[in-house]
Amino acid sequence: MFRTLALACAIALSAVAPFAPASAQEIESTTLPPYGPAITLDQAKRVMAAAELEAAENTWQVAITILDSGGNLVMFQKVDNAQLSATGISEGKARTALEFKRPSKDLDDAIARGGGGNRLLALKDITPIEGGLPILLDGKIIGAIGVSGAVSAQDSQVAKAGIAALTK
Questions:
Q1: Distance CA 18, CA 13 (A)
Q2: Residue ranges of the domains in the chain?
Q3: Coil, strand or helix: which one is 116?
Q4: Band of pLDDT at residue 27, cut at 50, 70 and 90
Q5: What is the spatial distance between Cα 25 and Cα 96, in angstroms, rounded to a whole number?
Q6: Pairing state of beta strands 73-78 and 132-137?
Q7: Rounded distance, CA 33 to CA 27, Å?
Q8: What angle separates helix 152-164 from helix 41-57, to the nearest 10 degrees?
Q9: On the CB side of 137, how many CA atoms lie within 13 Å of its CA?
Q10: Which of 5, 3, 135 is nearest to 70 (CA)?
Q11: What fold characterizes domain 2-167?
Q12: pLDDT digit string (tens) for 44-98?
């Protein structure tokens, strides 16, 4: 049993290694940011408001999830008429970005490249689809945002708009 667990951990860790650097928030694949204090409710409200505005301006019907640095749900909003699957997928994207300390698109790209990236398909409860981003403040991960309901690149655009509100 112990050998099986050790092997599973080794495979999971080696699956993370082939990622290219992410451009979404300048996360380098070799030096991932540490987890920091949890995003505050005020910060989450600013992120959510900016993300909702971006979605509304483009008439994208999405669900938006914000998690704190411990993986706890801080905020969730679903636009009227967003597809039912967007709820769970938005949380999955946020959780994936938080747990892997990188945009969920990095996992999506690793799987698309094939080869060693296909090991990610064996991992349980990940959502390797563009639209999940870690939220960084002062070089530390304070939470993550996940958006679902539009095309993945549009989901990511909404998430980026939300994060940008923290630097204004």
A1: 10
A2: 2-167
A3: helix
A4: very low
A5: 15
A6: unpaired
A7: 7
A8: 130
A9: 20
A10: 135
A11: Beta-Lactamase (3.30.450)
A12: 999 999 999 999 999 999 999 999 999 999 999 999 999 999 999 999 999 999 9
